[in-house]
Amino acid sequence: MKSRALIGLLLLGSLAAACGDDPPTAPSPASSSVTFTATLLPSSEVPPISGVEANGSGTATLTFNLTKDAAGTTTAATLDTTVSVTGFPAGTALTASHIHPGATGANGGILVSLGLAAGDVTFATGSGSFTRQGITVPVDQANSILANPAGFYLNIHTAANPGGVARGQLTRTP
Question: Which of 17, 30, 44, 149 is 20 to 30 A from 163 in CA distance terms?
């Protein structure tokens, strides 16, 4: 009889202790960012650009905003980018801008579009800049770029050079 009472007290004590515990909470996701730059040159396009747009140049800053789980695995990625150009003919209008896979001297298909439509960005004086923020990037593509930035390039396109007018390989900034 005493053992039955003792077992009952132990069970009651365990239930009471469990009721006082807060439910476990999942760790909140961590975020980080990684920044890359690219020097955009018509001579870096494949083949190199000639003609009136060959004197232009530019720079791009690309910041990947990463969300990571408790194990440090990237679960989401967005991209913020700013592109500045100079030396293009007055009235140059961009038709597109993308990140492509491809080492120096090699072309690749579109990996990430910056979402420009023809005529969205026009450089009245041949110089200027544009910014795009919050571009969703699939996690596998972001991870590929993070693992080997030199294997990717950003370029800008115009009507006169629909394959790209200025290109630069990505370089990770410290």
Answer: 149
SS3 22: coil
Measure the CA–CA gap between 38 and 15, rounded to whole angstroms.
61
Contact 6, 122 (CB under 8 A): no
Q: Which long-range contacts (CB under 8 A, 24 or more apart) does 21-26 make?
A: 26/70
Domain 25-172 CATH assignment equals 1.10.3470: no
- Cα separation, 123 vs 166, in Å, equals 14
Which ranges of 48-168 does DSSP label H, i.e. alpha helix?
Answer: 139-147
What sections of the chain are H helices per DSSP? 2-20, 139-147
CA gap 17, 14 in Å, rounded? 5
State phi, psi for 156 to the nearest 5 degrees.
-115, 150
Give the residue extent of every domain in the chain.
Answer: 25-172
Q: Are 111 and 97 in contact (CB under 8 A)?
A: no
pLDDT 10s digits, 119-151? 899 999 999 999 999 999 999 999 999 999 999
Nearest-5° Cα angle at 134, 98 to 116:
35
